[in-house]
User: Fold this.
Amino acid sequence: MANLFSKGKGLVGSLRVNGVIAGNTHTEKTTVTTLTDATETMTAAQVVTDGGLFVCTPTATRAKTIPTGTLTCAALKGYAVSDTFDVTFTNLTAATHALTITAATGATLVGSATVAAATSATFKVRVSAANTVVWYRVA
Assistant:
């Protein structure tokens, strides 16, 4: 189970110990995953383990399917209902071609699932029940 204070990702903000600031950094390892210029299904390992930062340069509108709720929860070892993590998609195309994020079984998308050309979309992914996740578009 993740550390409840830092959610297993390090210190966020600063911590004052005996009047002295003990830390003021937040670091985590993030892999930038380049998605193919095709319709594809992302793996739970890419979304959960690798840091959830995706880039793509589509030459046509492309569908990117998120992993199932079961696979996502299995990758979140020791998860609890209400645990969250962030996933960001960046569309590197200068104009025209969008990415469309599509849901799989046990995963629900809330908000716009379209990532327009030359923009990014960030989702807050929340475990809502066993083997079930909700992807909330937050930016």
